[in-house]
């Protein structure tokens, strides 16, 4: 069965000036499939953000739960090959997508394997390794798996999970992510333990954990979707305030006046 998205294609839909979220799909899916999967959250945030989807560089079989619903929607893609996350392919791909879009990318949203990469990108920003990702102010991780994916093997070496845990906690403790994040998990997700491990890579003081009665999927109940949407809006508002503080102080010295308009949270 082929599933067709009900919304216009990205090429036919005019771009807005809304801030952008870079959206990274899970392994064995695609940007097109991810746009359908995250549709409820995208609609809940339609007045606040523009979602920008990008395909992973490597073709692969369909991921868990993809078939039969997304039958015929290949090729299916992932972010890693057999040797790990190929920096020479992934980094230029993401940078080109963001540059071609031309929007202001304030955050990154990832599902499953995409959440692993999203956390790695925020580490790149935190350690000033990549100018392209410096705009990111927060991350949204949905049913993330583990360990994180870094575009540099020196940051996140490609090793078995148990070995990675030892290396990460013994040698990378000073690199715990302190950029604000929200980790959305499913209490019935077979990969729940990996979602919890991924959340431990973030500073508890800067992350929020939200757990819903669901599997390896997105919140389906409208109230649950809105809870996640409200949290994303709050992350952005806090980020925008932090970015604007130096400008407000400078304008104050010069006698200027600043009017701060809050982004409304949809009830």
Task: Write structural notes for this entry.
With 267 residues, the protein is an alpha/beta fold. The protein contains seven helices and eight strands, in the order E-H-H-E-E-E-H-E-H-E-H-E-H-E-H. The strands form two sheets. It has a six-stranded parallel sheet with strand order 2-1-5-6-7-8, sandwiched between helices. A two-stranded antiparallel sheet has the order 3-4. The protein is globular and about 45 Å long. It starts with 19 loop residues before the first strand and ends in a 14-residue tail after the last helix. The N terminus and C terminus are likely disordered.
- Fraction in beta strands: 5-15%
Low-confidence stretches: 1-12, 158-164, 245-267
| Gyration radius from CA atoms, angstroms | 18 Å
First and last CA, distance: 35 Å
Strand order of the largest sheet: 2-1-5-6-7-8
* Helical percentage: 25-40%
Helix/strand order, N-terminal first:
EHHEEEHEHEHEHEH
User: What general outline do the C-alpha atoms trace?
Assistant: globular
- How many alpha or pi helices? 7
Largest sheet: 6 strands, parallel
Mean pLDDT: 81
Helix/strand class: alpha/beta
Query: What's the β-strand tally?
Result: 8
Please provide a brief summary of the model.
The chain has 267 residues and is of the alpha/beta class. 35% of the residues lie in helices and 15% in strands.
Describe the secondary-structure layout.
Blueprint: E1 20-24, H1 31-37, H2 39-44, E2 50-54, E3 58-60, E4 76-78, H3 87-101, E5 105-111, H4 113-126, E6 138-142, H5 161-171, E7 181-186, H6 192-199, E8 207-212, H7 222-253
Parallel strand pairs: 1-2, 1-5, 5-6, 6-7, 7-8
Antiparallel strand pairs: 3-4
